[in-house]
Amino acid sequence: MKVFQVRQSATGAILWTGAALNEVAALDAMAHEAGYYDFSDLPGHVTAGGLVAEAVKH
Q: Do 10 and 1 touch, CB atoms closer than 8 A?
């Protein structure tokens, strides 16, 4: 597993850091830890500026 950071593209704010299999799994894990079922359930104001998941450690 890799360690990913999920950032809000517009602000550069780090929203989540943790282990995941890939970028999609990282976005789902971030949403789940925030209390949502998965990435698709996040409110628009969170995703409006775009989110990016990047591997930071292998």
A: no
